[in-house]
């Protein structure tokens, strides 16, 4: 029996569905009307954002909240270029997505064509791979290969460009089998096991690549009595209230105590982390090569920054399942006691709290940020997800918010794009509508991306957006106050959060009483709720400004004396 024949546009939708994609983010345009007509009749959910940058961030948040790949659909030219920062964020966040677009105009003999850019060259550094489809018969093989490549190894964005004729042509709805994962290297696994048995005390360093294997990672930690540390993207792989977890204690950028823990460990087993700038505390993390066992699905990250005694290219779930099976038949591992872990936790907390200068949060006890995040932690269920933008609020969340489930804290990592928070939270909501999702942003980020709330309202999502309102780009302003004592270009008239909420059809709440009750009610409420939280300067911030100005005046006086 012959396969049914469909248009290229219908074949795109059918192949995405077959690959497991169920959500497409983007904006329709002249070149993609045929694709949107096919989407109208397809089982895929199509989400129209306010612009393509937001759509790319939604696809990022969708993947990072679920481990499933979404599609980004743009027109060529301006739609393609709008999405570039989102592609860069996905590339550096190790977030898989499929960027579908049309090939630029290329009529023979004509120059200066409409919206014609060398998209392949522009997207080259931002994408794992590129596919160019000229005919309908190439659609299914290209999409399935692109989908597999996006999620394999280190996840990332993959670009697929279609010729307009390819979407109009007819082709059979063929069945193409997805590729199988490579087998595990048994000899490498045996070598790792031998090293772990000789090491005694072990430290686990878990990254985002371990998120799908959270249960197995916790089981391994308990089997080895291992101290558990995570990268920022790996927070919650082992719940941070687990007695072996030090993830919350090492949530800052300090590295002295962490390096001491490495010295006290016989082996460091790093799984699903690429030792990026953020994942290695600005490359201040010190791990002797003879202690390091590095396991990652991408061969390209193994040994890239940190040489290892054992470098194993394997999926975290497959590796951990096989390792635990061997460990269960060979018990008797020494490790850290819960009391010792508690001692390391106190030591890390002391280091993290040293020389800390933070703003005042209005509406909570004593204005302390930790009181606000304690209330948020109590209000948000264990399986809830907190997403942040880039800014001062992100640092506060990382420092004060314990993460109790895998993918429970999602932040922009090695690109740190403002405008990430709301859009990525929309993607997270769509990835799992039953999961409570909270976005935390500043009023600077709200000014940049606040109209994306229209999309959340239009899609009837349940989303809580907390806005820290201080009338400033708080992180950069703090750096200015520390440097010179003066702020310049970082203060602005604040956004009227209540008016914006009314304009887009969201509910507005101001935090000014019982923080936990207010936040819990917002999280449980249907629809989109904006929680306005006033933020101001604390006494330590005033001292920081005064000391910086005094230091500057002394330096100027010294320089004047030198010039006489």
Largest sheet: 7 strands, mixed
Q: Beta-strand percentage?
A: 15-25%
**Helical percentage:** 40-55%
Number of strands: 20
Total number of helices: 22
**Which structural category do the helix and sheet elements fall into?**
alpha/beta
What topology does this entry show?
Blueprint: E1 5-7, H1 8-19, E2 23-26, H2 33-40, E3 45-48, H3 52-66, E4 70-73, H4 78-82, H5 84-93, E5 97-102, H6 119-123, E6 129-133, H7 139-151, E7 157-162, H8 164-168, E8 170-172, H9 186-199, E9 202-206, H10 214-224, E10 227-230, H11 256-264, E11 267-271, E12 292-296, E13 310-313, H12 316-328, H13 338-353, E14 360-361, H14 369-379, E15 385-388, H15 392-400, E16 409-410, H16 420-431, E17 437-442, H17 443-449, H18 453-458, E18 463-469, H19 474-483, H20 497-504, E19 507-510, H21 515-524, E20 528-536, H22 539-563
Parallel strand pairs: 2-3, 2-4, 4-5, 5-7, 6-7, 9-10, 9-11, 11-12, 12-13, 15-16, 15-17, 17-18, 18-20, 19-20
Antiparallel strand pairs: 1-8, 14-20
